[in-house]
């Protein structure tokens, strides 16, 4: 009887969320649902963002579009990478051994999220230069320098996490859905400190410094404009409405993206530091904080679509183009029926 029970337990797949296992399907149902759901959202959302940027030329007017698109491609690759643990949890055979698979997956996702974090820091620097040095901005920030900056972001992010392949320790918990990563690959306090000092801390300090000064300068500009309008209206007897700083509106969109990024990543960073320093791990906390942080790859799409009017127009243009394409295919398949029904006015570009 005991041997039967042991055999049943050994046949169970490894689950970080033990209460999500169902014997009827023989896989970690809750983990599969969460990971597959996030994977679909991340991939579809970022594909839409990338297509909208190509459909809306006005979005490329800002130099920050280089970094926004870099983040979109990085987030799209995060979604594609998440197909690996999804297929593994569904018992699809891995092309290589589990230890190498989870190491590569953890490294890749860590690099991609580092690219997003560094891109947000560069966006804040770009907006800071635009507001503090508007006259020399176009000579300082050039397309060639932006491309070089993006290349350096990818190179730096890769180099920061590359020591994880040389027994420095685990770079994060993204691969913990694999048994080997969760049980045999451990974090190292020195490597964790190295990552924090080389990536998390500098990026956070840059973002805090730049956005604090951006909003302070915009507040001063708005105050000066309101004082001038007050003097002009008192002389002419007309009342005018104070115009908000246009740079502040765009900075607010970017600040929301940055704020949500750090809000979703803060629990992960705190757990990463605590687990590395104390050596105590919790599977549920590891899974929850990790995939909460990864969900940010989809949140960027939502924030941008809700906050940016130009992006919304580009999204309408993309949907209108898709509707026109569908209508053209329908006419090509059955022109007689469509002619009898009249013109298709449901889609407008």
Automatic annotation (TrEMBL):
It is a multi-pass membrane protein. The lineage of its organism: Eukaryota, Metazoa, Chordata, Craniata, Vertebrata. This is G protein-coupled receptor 21. Belongs to the G-protein coupled receptor 1 family. The keyword Kinase does not apply. InterPro entries: GPCR_Rhodpsn, GPCR_Rhodpsn_7TM, TAAR. It is found in: Cell membrane. PROSITE patterns: G_PROTEIN_RECEP_F1_1 (PS00237), G_PROTEIN_RECEP_F1_2 (PS50262). Its main location: membrane. Residues 45-304 form the G-protein coupled receptors family 1 profile domain. The chain crosses the membrane at residues 32-59, 71-92, 104-125, 146-166, 190-214, 253-274, 286-307. GO terms for molecular function: G protein-coupled receptor activity. Keywords: Cell membrane, G-protein coupled receptor, Glycoprotein, Membrane, Receptor, Transducer, Transmembrane, Transmembrane helix. One of its GO terms (cellular component) is plasma membrane. GO terms for biological process: G protein-coupled receptor signaling pathway; glucose homeostasis; insulin receptor signaling pathway; negative regulation of insulin receptor signaling pathway; positive regulation of multicellular organism growth. Pfam families: 7tm_1 (PF00001). SUPFAM superfamilies: Family A G protein-coupled receptor-like.
């Amino acid at each position: 009887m005991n041997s039967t029970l042991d055999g049943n337990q050994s046949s169970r797949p490894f689950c970080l969320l033990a209460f999500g296992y169902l014997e009827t399907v023989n896989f970690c149902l809750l983990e599969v649902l969460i990971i597959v759901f996030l994977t679909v959202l991340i991939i579809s959302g970022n594909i839409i963002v990338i297509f909208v940027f190509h459909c809306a030329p006005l979005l490329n007017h800002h130099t920050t579009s280089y970094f926004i698109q870099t983040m979109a491609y990085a987030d799209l690759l995060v979604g594609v990478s998440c197909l690996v643990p999804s297929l593994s949890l569904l018992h699809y055979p891995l092309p290589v051994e589990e230890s190498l698979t989870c190491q590569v997956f953890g490294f890749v996702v860590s690099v991609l999220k580092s690219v997003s974090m560094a891109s947000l820091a560069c966006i804040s620097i770009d907006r800071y230069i635009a507001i503090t040095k508007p006259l020399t901005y176009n000579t300082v920030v050039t397309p060639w320098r932006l491309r070089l900056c993006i290349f350096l972001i990818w190179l730096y992010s890769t180099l920061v996490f590359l020591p994880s392949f040389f027994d420095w320790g685990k770079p994060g918990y993204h691969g913990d859905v694999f048994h080997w990563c969760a049980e045999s690959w451990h974090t190292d306090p020195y490597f964790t400190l190295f990552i924090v000092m080389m990536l998390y801390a500098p990026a956070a300090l840059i973002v805090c410094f730049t956005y604090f000064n951006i909003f302070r300068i915009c507040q001063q500009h708005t105050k000066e404009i309101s004082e001038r309008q007050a003097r002009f209206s008192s002389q002419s007897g007309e009342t005018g409405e104070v115009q908000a700083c246009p740079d502040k509106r765009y900075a607010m969109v970017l600040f929301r993206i940055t704020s949500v990024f750090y809000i979703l990543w803060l629990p992960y960073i705190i757990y990463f530091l605590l687990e590395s320093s104390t050596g105590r791990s919790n599977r549920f906390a590891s899974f929850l904080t990790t995939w909460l942080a990864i969900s940010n790859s989809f949140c960027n799409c939502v924030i941008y679509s809700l906050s940016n009017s130009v992006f919304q127009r580009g999204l309408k243009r993309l949907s209108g183009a898709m509707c026109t394409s569908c209508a053209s295919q329908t006419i090509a398949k059955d022109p007689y029926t469509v002619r009898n029904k009249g013109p298709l006015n449901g889609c407008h570009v």
